[in-house]
Amino acid sequence: MKTFLFCSISLLGVCSCSIYAGSSPKEVNQDASIIEDLEKSSDDLLQDTDGEKKCALIIPDSIKKSVAPEMQYTVLLQLILNLVRAEYVKNMSECEITEKAVSGMLASLDPHSSYLNEKAFASLKNQTDGEFGGLGIEIIIDEGFIRIISPVDDTPAYKAGIKGGDLIIYINDECINGISAEEALEKLRGKPKTKVKLKIKRGDKIPFDIEIERDIIKVKSVKAEIHDNIGYIRISTFDKNTTCDIKKFLKENAKLCGLILDVRNNPGGLLDEAVATSDLFLNGGKIVSTRGRTEENSRVFSADPGDLTNGTPLVVLINSGTASAPEILAGALRDNKRALIVGTRSFGKGSVQKVIPLSEKTALKLTVAKHYTPNGECIQANGIVPDIEADHAMIHKPDVFIIREESFNNALDADKKEKNKKISDAENKKTIDELGKKKDKKNDEEEDQELLYRKLSLKERLDKDYQLIKAFDTIKAIERFSNLSGKRINEK
Fold first, then answer.
1. What is the set of domains in the chain, with CATH numbers?
2. In the chain, % of residues over pLDDT 70
C-alpha cells in the first residue's frame, strides 16, 4: 500500500497529491464534446469493465437463492460484518468495525485513496489552512514501511541528508511495519523544533539512525541563476508563487540564449501552477487533460497564445524523483515540441484525488481521474521518458599534465605561444594543487552527490553534475543549430 505524505486538498474539487495545499485548478477548456471524446478514446479509465470475473468473493448459495442479484454482495458484506461482530477475539464497537471496513476498502483501491477519520481530516485541513511542523519529504507506503520519493530543497530532511529511495523502518525506536497513511502523518509531523529519530535502510547498507528536527515547511520554490548567458531555473516544488517568480526572472532577463528548467527531485505541488508555468513557454496548444468517469472529473487545460520567451531554446531536467506537477510541465513542453527533456524517467504519479467530505469531521480521499499529456500518454505509472538519457554520474577530471604545441621551446608564432603557454601553465598548476589536497576517502560515502552539488554555485556544479552538464551542452547545441538554420527550435 502506498500513499503520499503531504497531500494537497481541495475540499470540493480535484486535487493533485503532492506537498502543499491544492486549490481548484484554472479550467481553461471544459467543453462537453471534448469530455465525451476523452471518455470514448480512453481505454484506461478507472472503472473495471470486467469486474465480475476479477472479483474474488463467492456468494453463498443461501444468499443466491433468497436475494435479488443486485443486492447479493451487499447482503454478503453485512453477513461478514455480523461475523466479525460476533466471533472476533476482541470486542469491537459498531463504529470501530465500520471504520475499519471502510478504511480497508478504500486503501485496497489504489495507493492514494483513503478514509479520513476525524484526526486525519483535521490534519489535512491544517495543512491547507495554516503552518505545520514537518520534515519536508515526499513518501509512499511501500511493503508496510515508508519509502521516500525525495526530500524537498532546503527542508530539515534535505539538510539531514535524506535521499530518494531511503526506507524508514523505525520511527523513534518503534518498528512501523504495517503502518497506515494516517499513522505515518501523525508520527512524522509535529510541533516545530521537536525532534524525530528515523532508522533508515538505504540499499544494501546496514540500517542507520538519523535525528531530524521538525520545522515549519516554507520552501522557496524557485531559484534562478545565469551562466554563459543561459538561464538556469531550479523549481523545487510548485506553490502559489512559482509562476510569478519565474515570470519575473524571464522579464528581467529577456535576451538569454537558452533556458534550463531543473525539476529533478521535485515531488509535486499545485496543479494550476504547473499549468500556468507551462503556459509561460507555450504559444497555445494543450497542456494536460484529466480523464475520469464523470464530466466533472474530465478536463482539458490549454495554453493561451503568447510564448513569454519567444522560442528561446529550452531544456527540462528530470529524474526518478520528478513526480506529479513537474511531470505535467515536462510532458506539456515535450509534446508541444517546445523543449527537450534530459535525465532519467520520472516517477509516474499521474492520478487525481478528490476529497469528499462525509461530515464536518470526516471525508473520503478518492482517486477520480488520471493525467494525460497532450499526445494522449497516461502519466500514471509511465512517467515521462527523456529525449536524452543522462543518468546521474560523478565527473572526475583526469590528473594529467597538459602538453600542447606551445609547450615546445621552438614552437612557431612566438606571440601566440607565450599567451597560450600561460593558460596551459595555469591549468597544470591547478592539477598539482588538487593532487596535493587529495585525501583518502571512504568507499561508501553516504552523502547524495546530487544533493551535495546543489549546495555549490552553478559554476562549481558544472564541473561535477553530469546531468546538468548534459543540459547545458544540449542548449548550446540547439543554439548553434538555430544560428546555422536561422530559426528557433519551436518553429515549424
1. 132-216 (2.30.42.10)
2. 73
> What is the pLDDT averaged over residues 349-359?
92
Task: Spell out the residues 6+ positions from residue 398 whose beta carbon is closer than 8 angstroms to its own.
Answer: none
- One-letter amino acid for residue 272 of the chain: D
Rounded to whole angstroms, the Cα distance separating 134 from 191 reads: 8
CA distance 99 to 83: 16
Residue 73 pLDDT > 70: yes
Nearest alpha carbon to residue 381 among 365, 392, 370: 370
Bridge pairing between strands 195-201 and 167-171: antiparallel
The C-alpha atoms of residue 324 and residue 317 are separated, in whole angstroms, by 15
- Report d(CA 486, CA 339) in Å as an integer: 18
In the sheet that holds 340-343, the strands lie side by side as 222-227, 230-235, 258-262, 314-318, 340-343, 388-389
Q: Which residues are catalytic?
A: 324, 335, 349
Over 70: is that where the pLDDT of 153 sits?
A: yes
- Stretch among 142-156, 261-275, 279-293, 337-351 having the lowest mean pLDDT: 142-156
- Answer whether residue 115 shows pLDDT above 60: yes
Looking at residue 458, its amino acid is L
Cα separation values, 116 from 109, 303, 352, 359, Å = 15, 35, 17, 11
Q: Which three cell numbers stand for residue 435?
A: 593532487
Task: Work out the percent of the chain whose per-residue pLDDT is above 90.
Answer: 49
DSSP classification of residue 394: B
What integer is the mean pLDDT of 88-106?
A: 92
- Is it the case that residue 491 has pLDDT exceeding 80? no
Nearest-angstrom CA–CA distance, 452 and 52? 52
Is residue 90 exposed (0-12), middle (13-18) or buried (19+ Cβ within 10 Å)?
exposed
Size (the chain), residues? 492
In b/e form, how buried is each residue of 139-159, taking b as 16+ CB within 10 angstroms? bbbbeebbbbbbbbbebbbbb
How does the average pLDDT of the chain come out, rounded? 80
Alpha-carbon gap, residue 113 to 428, rounded angstroms: 60
- How far, in Å, CA of 247 to CA of 331, rounded? 20
What letters, b where the CB count within 10 A reaches 16 and e where it falls short, cover 343-380? Answer: bbbbbbbbbbbbbeeeeeebbbbbbbbbbbbbeebbbb
C-alpha cell at 152: 524537498
Instruction: Give the model confidence (pLDDT) of 375-420 as tens digits.
Output: 999 999 899 999 999 987 666 665 555 566 666 666 666 566 566 6
Query: How, if at all, do strands 314-318 and 258-262 pair?
Result: parallel
Dist CA 471 CA 342 (whole Å) = 6
